[in-house]
Design a protein that fits this description.
This protein is about 65% helix and about 0% strand. The chain has 13 helices and two strands. Helix 8 packs antiparallel against helix 9 and helix 11 runs antiparallel to helix 12. The protein is elongated.
Length: about 290
């Protein structure tokens, strides 16, 4: 690592700090220090930021570490904590970044940068969800990270409804919600294939109840109707299929209509049944 000019200039400043000489001001913990301390902290932080912006990750990490060590009572030490998390985030080291953002939030609950830290932690969780051609389809994989991302994003949107990060957070929530529902439907289809009807129904109802707004409700409802049909609960299945046609429309309404037709119930409830053709011409008026 190249030597930091700001850090090399600290010896005199820190010696003076021990005696509290110069122009005094209040530190975060109520102690006082000289103005030089803050100026040197800012200079050291700016030097670390220059390395960060140049993507000189090794130097940046070392320089932020120096800021934390030498200026522990300045706000630049807190900013250095945050930038180290950003550094890992930018390098795709999401588990490390998540841990560092979480530590910042816990240790600096009243800091104005907590909103940013919570957003970046949620973003890191979102990006840590594996999506590569070398892995099984998304709906087949363990959803622990996806579920954690879902919870963090929802919490963020609830706590900061007017955040400047809201649009991106809302998009991430839509993606992870869809993924979680697809997983539940994948499991439900497996149970349905195995004739484990109660288990299939439980997973479908869980998905509908727990993850509203996924956009997958009509698909889940058609699968629920199919499951009820195989359980020989025709009336309940019919009600579900009719709700898809009535409330949702779209391609799954076509599927629901097909199921109703196969059940011989392709008409709304209460509608008169069509008379079967007799093969003869209707009788004419009596003369």
């Amino acid at each position: 690592m190249r030597p930091s000019a700001a850090v090399l200039a600290l010896a005199g400043c820190l010696a003076a700090l021990g005696g509290l000489v110069g122009c005094d001001f209040e530190l975060n913990d109520g102690r006082t220090a000289t103005l030089t301390y803050t100026e040197d902290a800012r200079a050291a932080y700016n030097e670390a930021m220059a390395a960060f912006q140049a993507k000189d990750w090794e130097d940046a990490r070392a320089l932020f570490g120096e800021v934390k060590r030498l200026f522990a009572y300045s706000r630049y030490a807190r900013l250095a904590d945050l930038r180290i998390a950003d550094l890992d985030f930018e390098q795709g080291k999401y588990p490390e970044a998540i841990s560092e953002y979480r530590a910042f939030i816990q240790e600096h609950r009243t800091d104005r940068n907590v909103e940013y830290a919570k957003y970046r932690m949620a973003k890191a969780l979102y990006l840590d969800i594996d999506d590569t051609v070398f892995l099984p389809p998304a709906e087949e994989r363990d959803q622990a990270t996806t579920l954690e991302a879902y919870k963090e994003i929802r919490t963020f949107l609830r706590q900061y409804p007017r955040s400047r990060y809201r649009e991106d957070a809302a998009y991430m929530l839509e993606v992870v919600t869809g993924r979680l529902v697809r997983h539940e439907l994948y499991v439900a289809r497996y149970y349905l294939k195995e004739d484990a009807f109660d288990a299939a129904l439980a997973r479908i109802d869980y998905a509908l109840r727990t993850f509203p707004g996924s956009g997958l409700d009509p698909e889940a409802l058609v699968l629920k109707g199919e499951t009820l049909l195989k359980m020989k609960k025709s009336d309940e299945a019919r009600a579900v299929f009719e709700s898809v046609i009535r409330d949702w429309g779209g391609p799954f309404a076509v599927t629901a209509r097909r199921f109703l037709d196969e059940m011989g119930a392709g008409r709304p409830r209460g509608a008169p049944a069509k008379k079967a053709a007799s093969g003869r011409a209707p009788a004419g008026p009596q003369l």
